[in-house]
Amino acid sequence: MPRINRRAVVAGAAASALAGQAGAVLPPIGPGRTKIVFLSDVHIGDNSPTVWYQKDFHEPYLAALLDYVIAGAGEVRELIILGDFVDFWTYAPRRRPPDFREIAQANPAIFGPGGKLAQALSALKGRVTYVPGNHDMGITQRDLDIVASREGWRIQLRDEEVYFPLAPDRRLACSHGHRWTMFNAPDLATPLAPIPLGHFVTRSVAFMLDRDLPPGRSVADLPDQGAPNGIELSKLAGSINGSLIESAVNYAVKVTGITLAEPILLPDGRTTNLGEVKRVYQGLWARWAGAVGGDISAAKAAAADIDGHYLPWFAQRLALQTGADLVVFGHTHEPRSGLKDGFINYVNTGFDCPSRADIGTKHPTFIEVDTVSLTARLRQVTAQASGAYVIEDHAAPQDSIVYGPTLDYSTYVTVDNTQGAADLVRRATVEVRGRYVVAPPAVIPRGHVTRFWIQDNAGARGSEGVVAYDRAGGPPVELRFACPTGVAPNLASGAPFVARVGGKDWAAPNTAPRAGHPLFVRFSV
Prior knowledge:
Layout: H1 6-20, E1 35-39, H2 55-71, E2 76-81, H3 100-106, H4 108-111, H5 116-123, E3 128-130, H6 141-144, E4 156-157, E5 172-174, H7 197-212, H8 244-256, E6 264-265, E7 271-272, H9 274-280, H10 284-292, H11 295-306, H12 311-322, E8 326-329, E9 345-348, E10 365-370, E11 375-383, E12 389-393, E13 411-416, E14 424-433, E15 435-438, E16 443-444, E17 449-455, E18 463-470, E19 477-483, E20 491-493, E21 497-501, E22 519-524
Parallel strand pairs: 1-2, 2-3, 3-4, 5-8, 8-9, 13-22
Antiparallel strand pairs: 1-10, 6-7, 10-11, 11-12, 13-17, 14-16, 14-18, 15-17, 18-19, 19-20, 21-22
């Protein structure tokens, strides 16, 4: 993943958020406000035919969702717009995409004075947060300041990589999700920075739609629209021969009919074409492999865009790196209700711009998180025959860390040093089989609990690792753990522990279940 000066980004976002509030201080959160509402991927544009969101069809769904938040504001701690709420991408190549002001002016019932966002700001006393995605990358606090409540509250921009709504408690983490996908993460390594390759795939689709849509019709009239890139990138997987980037551009040309020389006018006024895109993004795979830990992880980042797989893998890695227990993403346009056999919990908001042809099999969806129990509830907006729009529970599948025919023979390790008399200082770490996705930390302070993860490599060997810690005034600790394939038993040793496999119950203390996967071990040292 491209390197970003996170300190500068966070500092800039914080400063602009304060400026947007004109010095206002948010009131204390009342004891009854224990719910956070997440919505993403609405893709509001200027209602051009190539834009997934069309006001005449989608606005009542969005208005009903925001009315639900407004009516229940006494329970809502925060409304988090989790990216791609507006869309700067889905436009024909020869036109410059509209800016935020133009989009707001085209949708006054949402953005205007007295519009639904202004009403939400009033009801929530300013607790509305905007976390950008890829289609609205580049949005600023100045843009968001166009929307204001009658009291002067404004939407607060949070443009850091990860937002922790309960900070300093970091158990809940959220992000749009695009920063862990190869085609859509901000790319600072090309002359077109920060625009990623996915922007040009989407503009190519808009070229095709602009050419082929009959008068009076829009993309919202077509089935299978509102995909994160606009075309079925899953078909790209079989077309990769050597150069992923060349294959991606060639695939876009083949599917949409755009030429390599067709001018593409960018949001900032620059002009490029797919010929230049093919050249300047050549090193994309190598940059990702270097940033995320090799070709296997880079392939996961590509798959996260091609078919949505493996984004939960990055969510789980993020959780272990930051101390989160629940991660909320959007981006894939596929709602998810949890993580099967995961070390943490992961949910996905889905999207709010299904086409007319798809409505009924797909729904505008959002997520409510209870901040006390840290549980997530998926919800949908449904149109009734009477013309009313109601909020209902949404049934969505859980997601997975790995996908068939591959199985997960990871070992997930927790080390509890809350009762220890000293810090644990790492002396050695060994990857016997597999590799550490999240390595054992160099120090586990006294009073702390830490988690790490070793995953099996491709093949039939499973995972096995060893980590040794020294501690002042006491004997060293050498922890061994393994989740092998075949007939060899699971293993945990080196300190008192409990263990389980998959979604099963914990076994008796100091007993590792002989078979099953993945293996979860909790050591107390």
